[in-house]
Amino acid sequence: MFIPLTLFGISLIVFSMIGMLSPYQRLATFISNPDRLKSENVDQLIDMYGLNDPIIVQYVRWLRNLFQGNLGWSYVGKTPVLQAIVQRFPYTLELTLFSAIPIILIGTWMGVVSALHHNRPLDHSLRIFAVIGWSFPDFVFGLFVLMILYSTLGLFPPGNLSIWAEQVVKSVGFKSFTGMVTIDSLLNGRLDVFIDSLRHLFGPVLTLTYVELAYILRITRSSMLEVLRRDYVRTARAKGLDEKVVINKHAKKNAMIPVATVSGQTIVGLLAGTVIVEAIFNRTGLGSFMALAAQQLDYASIMGGTLFFGLILIVGNLLVDISYAYIDPRVRLE
Amino acid sequence: MRSENRRIIKKFFFNTSSIIGFSLLGMFIIISIFAPWIAPPKEGKNPYMMPIVTWSSNPQPPSPEHPFGVAGKRDIFYGVIWGTRTAFQVGIIVTAISTLIGLFIGSVAGYYGKFIDEVLMRITDVFLAIPFLVAALVLTTILGSGLDKVLIAMTVFGWMYPARLIRGNILQAKEEQYVMAAKALGVRNLFIILRHVLPNTIFPVLIQASMRMGSLVITAAALSFLGVGSPQGYSDWGALLNYSRNWMLGGQGEALRYWYMTVFPGVAMILFVLSWNLVGDALRDVFDPRLRV
């Protein structure tokens, strides 16, 4: 009930933004050959595509097509919009999954270490590390990574795959299972392609990890500090339990509850927030697709992509809420 | 009260990170005020446009004439200095207007509750369900080039965060005894909101605003990095970084020769965002004791 309503709202917002364009501007996205725009039958073309109709009529027409599974033609992707999204989403998902693992693992680990060394030099240096990462715009860090790791050292190239690996993936013998090259290449038994795609993933993953890590680190640290002051931790220590057991069994487990929520939100945020990183590293994901579509005012792609992002955000946040109740039994009781 | 004041002053001025934050911020304020003297613009030209200093599109390394080098035919030093003004404009204007809108929507929703609250919060949810950068990107492209268009786009999709915060705080404050007492005395609703509820919820809003400042400046720079928003040649850190992009992707081993194209505007941005984050942290530590660890 709630999800379709929100999606309907999103489509209204996006369509009213597009309604601000003149019919002529919108016509440009229908025409692949710019010379045709100069010809005299521009008005005819505008009539043909119904671009002079009231915006409501156009909206209803778009909505009717949507229910038939037709999101329109993507000029950026040179395929139908739905197909363009389905093709590109695995790349974004892959980048998200590969980044989420180090972000969550390193972030929580650093947060715990920071809390255990509260107000000592290690704590201070980890906090400085985090606050600088937090202040680093992703495109600045990405440019530094490109400058040093790729251009100078020649180690981790931008793009999705090397040309030879691209050819392997597109060849007939290579079966696509998930659309994610790392997983597909393993399933096809092509270790060389797997390693090549990891090399291409390294730069964007490193960038996202450093920029996004800070938030998890902060939450873990403050949650851990709070838990360490609780009575049950003091009791555990008082009855002579080993410090390791106190930290791992009593403190860490309880401190992880808010961290789990934040981790979920981070993953959802990454899925919808890779626009810049994908653009810098020339990856063909949903983010760079949206950037291109927006720059070229390819509005069928913009509409479809925004709706898809909205769907990801809503469903993702819903899953986070549900898993929260699963992780923390106290929420269920309320 | 007096010891509270002393605690606040002590927290502000005897804490390394807040000292760093405030002095960086002070430095940027001075730079933006004295920009016409530090990097004098040409007579009769719009000072925000970076003047073209060479006709070769190749970047030039730092030299006495161009201390930060030349990128995209333009002087990087000039762009970094005047870009400070752009950054302040974006941060302050977007934060101020979106906070005011959020303040209005959030307090109406939180105070009146029921149906109005339900409707306003569903609208907020819809706006929140579009990724901020994507939404700002689309709207800026549609509105066309110009810094004002960037500001509009970022405000249209930026008011939800303060609105939510205020609504939550007001729901809490509504249950307080002093609000109930005012109601029992027959004080008018508007007066209760302005006089009793808002002053007690305003600090978290200010803290959030200072913390958002950095991320808003990043988003605006990201837009010009992607080539939308501010017009070609406008002093903007993101636009300067955009010039360096192709050179960073360029030939093997060559990119480090062009380090100045990325490092100077990049460091300016990092320090600017860092200063706001540190100031936001300091404000939070002082004014929101619940969050103090």
Summarize this structure briefly:
By secondary structure, chain A is mainly α. Chain A has helices spanning about 1-20, 25-30, 35-40, 40-50, 55-65, 80-115, 120-135, 140-150, 165-170, 180-185, 190-230, 230-240, 245-270, 275-280, 285-295, 300-325, 330-334, and strands at about 75, 80. The interface between A and B is large, with 53 and 52 residues.
Order of helices and strands of chain A: HHHHHEEHHHHHHHHHHHH
Overall number of domains of chain B: 1
| Helix content percent band of chain B | over 70%
State which percent range the strand residues of chain B make up. Answer: under 5%
Overall 3D geometry of chain A? globular
Biggest β-sheet: strands ordered side by side in the sheet of chain B? 1-2
Q: Report the major sheet of chain B.
A: 2 strands, antiparallel
Structural class of chain B: mainly alpha
CATH superfamily of chain B: MetI-like
Q: Architecture of chain B, CATH level 2?
A: Orthogonal Bundle
Overall radius of gyration of chain A: 24 Å
Largest sheet of chain A, in brief, is:
2 strands, antiparallel
Q: Spans of chain A with pLDDT under 50 lasting ≥5 residues? A: none
The value of Rg of chain B in angstroms is 23 Å
User: In total, how many beta strands of chain A?
Assistant: 2
Note the run of SSEs of chain B as H and E: HHHEEHHHHHHHHHH
The chain-level mean pLDDT of chain B equals 84
Number of helices of chain B: 13
Account of the protein in words:
Chain A is an all-alpha fold and 334 residues long. Chain A has helices spanning 2-18, 23-28, 35-38, 42-48, 55-67, 81-116, 121-135, 138-152, 163-170, 181-187, 191-228, 231-238, 243-272, 275-280, 286-295, 299-327, 329-333; strands at residues 73-74, 79-80. Chain A has a two-stranded antiparallel sheet with strand order 1-2. Chain A starts with a helix and ends with a helix. The model of chain A has no long low-confidence stretch (mean pLDDT 83). In chain B, strands 1-2 form a two-stranded antiparallel sheet. In chain B, β1 (70-71) and β2 (74-75) form a beta hairpin. The longest helix of chain B is centred in the first third of the chain and has 37 residues, at 76-112. The interface between A and B is large, with 53 and 52 residues.
